[in-house]
Amino acid sequence: MAQRSLGFIAALGSVLVLVGCSNVWRDNFVGAPVGYYESLPDDVRVDVREVPWSRVESALSEIEHRRAQSDTHWKDWSREELMDEQSGLLRALQISEDPEDIIVLGRSVFKSTDRVSPFDKELEAFARELGADYAIVSSNYLGKTDKIVSEPVTRSGNSWRTCRDSGGNYRSEYVPWSETVYVPVVVAADEYAWVVYYLRRR
Asked: What pLDDT shows up at residue 187?
């Protein structure tokens, strides 16, 4: 189990997914095969930290390079080799604790054009649910992209209506009407990539 959990720190690759839901942290979580841990009590602090994207990107590129250069599949590496790999990731995440004392529980990876804030308590709550002492988050601006949004369009006019008056005679009259419909519109939006690693102290 130790080797499987240490080997979880693979590169971002193609797992970036466009999302627009409210709880992106949970919906895009991929857990490491390290078993189940109970949620942290409410009185135990979850440390939510931001680190520069360049640090994470560099570490993941190094991991990918080392795995590509190895004649042995990383799943067959020794515990020392896997721990060395994890140590590189933890340095990139600016974790100064002994790598032997840290368990990587999993990560959330996604890209989004929606407004995302790692400090709005939702990330902290999800990390607490996982039993993570740390939620280390990093983001990177990807540029403009097309986004489909619903815009309200109001139409109005008049229509004929035929009715019977108090004298029993039929008469026609104009009746004003209006309605609002939502139509899809393509707009340019800022897009960001996000990655969060969830760490637990042993």
From this structure: 80
Domain match, 37 and 70 both:
yes
Q: 93 and 171 share a domain?
A: no
What is the C-alpha separation between 76 and 70, in angstroms, rounded?
11
pLDDT, residue 22, reads 63
**Which one, of 62, 47, 133, lies nearest residue 92 by Cα?**
62
- Report residue 197 CA to chain centroid gap: 11
Give the pLDDT of residue 14: 36
Instruction: For the chain, give the mean pLDDT.
Output: 85
Sequence-distant (≥ 6) Cβ neighbours of residue 195 within 8 angstroms: 12, 56, 107, 108, 109, 137, 138, 139
CA atoms of 116 and 192, how far apart (whole Å)? 9
Other residues' Cβ atoms within 10 Å of the Cβ of residue 77: 19
Residues 140 and 152 in one domain: no
One domain for residues 44 and 83: yes
| pLDDT < 70 regions, the chain | 1-22
Q: Are 36 and 132 in contact (CB under 8 A)?
A: no
Q: How does pLDDT run across 58-74, given as a tens digit for each residue?
A: 999 999 999 999 999 99
Residue 173 lies in domain: 148-185
